[in-house]
Structures are given as structure tokens and as C-alpha cells.
Amino acid sequence: MAPWSVERMTALAREIAEKTKTITGHLSSKGLGRHLTMSMAWPNSPSRPRTRSQLHDVAVGPKESLRYLAWDSADSPSLQALCEFKVPQAVPLDGIISYEDLAAKVVALNDGLDIPVLNLRRLVRHAMTNRIFAEPKKGFLAHTRVSRLMLEDEALSSWVGFMTHDLWLPMANVVGAMRRWPASEESTETGVNLAYRQGAAFFDYIQQDQALAQRYSLAMQAHGGGEGYSVASVVEGYRWGRLPEDATVIDGYISFAIAEAFPSLRFIVQDTVGMRTPETIGAVLEALQPRVQLTTHNFFTPQPVVADAYFFRHIFHGYADKYCIQILQALVPALRPGAKVIINDGALPEPGTAGYIEERTMQTMDIIMQVTVNAREREPDNWRMLFERADGRFRFGGCWRPEKSRMWFIEAEWAGEV
Ligand SMILES: C[S@@+](CC[C@H](N)C(=O)[O-])C[C@H]1O[C@@H](n2cnc3c(N)ncnc32)[C@H](O)[C@@H]1O
Question: Which residues form the O-methyltransferase C-terminal domain (predicted)?
């Protein structure tokens, strides 16, 4: 079937109708038919949004679909403006407000900043094309479910601010960074450095500004709290029970949940000195204290603890290959035959092997990792090669993704001598 043809349009439309029937049936069976306001896991149809956008693209043709793709870059400034100028806060929760009254409220919320009503109106009307706000009566604005979320869900509105403001300038500077520092693997030679004209790595940079750090931390809650990042998938997604009786696992904070589920395991939780605050130390439940020990260690320096398994969650995707190899090599002095290195991290699906949402999420994440720290997400082959490059005595055990998880498990075993 030709990709740009009437036949293809018809097939896509049929596919959408069939999948929509599955979804509506599922929602109605759960009594949710009239309240589609929460985030939903669409049953059996991971490719539904792709089918819909494919139908749009085929309908408008290749030339227009490309033109729209670039044209949609205006989504970010309108979203950014709503967030920055606190527009959702100026609209009554129930009822409507005229653009003139809205402008007066927005100016007051922004310390008298001159925001002309026509400028405000164009930003809001653009946002309306994305179902943010509605104009039920000409010249009067009301909340929609989406705009209310920007008011009511602090983590989600921080996510919007972080993506459309804090990260948007760095995104626009990633090509400039590639020209200025070709093939760099350094976290201080990125779009963030170019955009904000500063020399610190992303995380150090945001820590210098309390408001920025707080917005990032809340935004990560919206991201981490999303579908596919649950603690349960870490606990259930790996054969923890098959580790030797009384095995010692070196890890970050996720240990608490694994320790609760697997009483035969002991955990030594390593992190930087800065993370050993009374708050983090106090987080170990009394019942777990005999088996979960919080310690400090810099994972770029030789590992002092001989253990059965070394678990890294959400670590490697934050570093370029050069540094991941250093982290793996730093384990070698402590590794004994059969010791496992277990990684729980994002992985890039091979093109065409995952649903559209997962593929697009991970490809976007890969770009964000480059923009912020010159790191990357990895395909299964990249993971294998990482271990090979670190040391030929690692035996790669493969990658797998637990059901409903966006995070993969990647495993290797030490096959060297003592
Ligand atoms: C993205 S967080 C992941 C935390 C946790 N493993 C999880 O799954 O959510 C990265 C963690 O690595 C720690 N970290 C950063 N640099 C480190 C280093 N050189 N040595 C040890 N830990 C480090 C940070 O303090 C932070 O706790």
C-alpha cells in the first residue's frame, strides 16, 4: 500500500474506528465514559495516537505535514507565557472573565508588568487550539479541564514551566553546542551551557537557583510519577529472589521497597556525602534497619565493598559512554566470579519494535539527555558494547522491559577470576 494514498487513508481511518471501539468499550465497562479527565492507560492500543497522527499526515500530504510540524513550534511560547504570567490563576474556577478584566488581573499578578490585552488574547487563543481554556461567549474566557490542571496540579504545572521555559532555550541551543564542542562527552559543553552562558553542568547550575531547583524537582515528580516508572515494576521486574540467600546488594534508595519484598537480601545503599542528610538517614524504616545500611561512596572511585550484586537505577543514562565505562571499571576491584551488575534505566527500543508512545518518549528523552548533560539513552546493542568496552570479563546477560514499565533491566555477570 502506497504510504501517501487514499487506500492508506481509508485503512488508517478503519484502524482508528476499531481501536476507538476497544477504548470506549473499556472505559464504559469501568463506568468512566462520562469523565475522561484522568490519565488513562489505553488498552491494547499502544499505536492509537500514531494512527491518528498518521491519518492527519496522509490527509494533508507530505509537504503540509512537514510544514505543520515546524509551525507547531509556536506551542511552546504560548504555553510558556500562560505559565510564566500565571494566566490560569487569573481565570475564575467557575464562570467566565472578559479579556480586559483578565489582563488587569494578570498585570496585577505580575507586579504591574505591561501585558497588553491584545498580546494576552493572542497567546490564550493559540492555547485554546490545544484545548487549554475556552471562549464560551465571544470576548470571555473560561477554564477547561486542561487549564485547571495547570492551576491544581503543582507537579504538572512545574513540568510545563520546566519544559517550555527552563529547557526550551537549551533545546534551541543544542545545534550551536554541537558546532562549538564537536563530539563532546562533557556535561559542561551542552545546550544548557550555551543557552545560559555559564560553565557549570546542568544539575550544578539548577542547584544555584532555589526556584529553578524546586521547579525541576517538582517537574521530575510529574515525570517519575507517570505511567511506566513505578517502584513495583523494579521490585517485580527482576528475579531478586534468585540472588543467593543473604546476598548483599549495593544500590540507591529504591532498596527499601526491594528489601521489604525480599527478606533474605541485605542492602548497602551508597550515595554522595551530600545525600546523607538526617532526612535521608531517617527514611530507613526501623524494621529494615538491620538489613539496609546507608553509606557514602563516589561511584567513579574503586568500589570498596564485595557484594553479590551491584544495582544502578537511573544512573547510566545521565552519563556519556566515557563516564559509564569509568563507573563499570571502578567496580572491578570488588567483583568476584558470578557477581551481577544490574541496571534499571531507560533503553531505546529498536526502531519499529515498540508502541508509538514509548518510542517517541524515549527518543525525546535521548535528545533531552544530550541537551542537558551530553549523555544518552541506549539501545540493547549499545548496552552490550558498554560492558565490552569497560572490561572483556563482563558477560552481558541482555536487556528486558517488564510489562507496563518504561524502564528496562540490563544485566551482566562478572566472569573474571578472583
Ligand atoms: C537520578 S538519581 C537516581 C536515584 C535513584 N537511584 C533512583 O532510582 O531514583 C542519581 C543519584 O546518583 C547520585 N550520585 C550522583 N553522582 C554520584 C557519584 N559520583 N557517586 C555516587 N552517587 C552519585 C545522586 O546523588 C542521586 O541520588
Answer: 197-390
DSSP bridge partners of 98: 140
- Is the C-beta atom of 313 inside 6 A of ligand 1? yes
Q: Is 300 in the pocket of ligand 1 (CB under 6 A)?
A: yes
Please report the pLDDT score of residue 198 as a whole number: 97
Report CA(114)–ligand 1 centroid distance (Å): 43
Instruction: Say what the pLDDT of residue 398 is.
Output: 93
Q: Which of 202, 271, 342, 373 maximizes ligand 1 atoms within 8 Å of its Cβ, making it the mutation to test the pocket?
A: 271
pLDDT over 80 (residue 226) = no
Residues 6+ apart with CB under 8 A from 295: 268, 269, 270
The DSSP secondary-structure symbol of 316 reads G
Give the integer Cα–Cα distance in Å for 360 and 357.
5
- Asked if 327 and 319 touch (Cβ cutoff 8 Å), the reply is yes
Residue nearest (by alpha carbon) to ligand 1 atom 18: 298
Res 101: pLDDT: 98
More confident call, 164 vs 53? 164
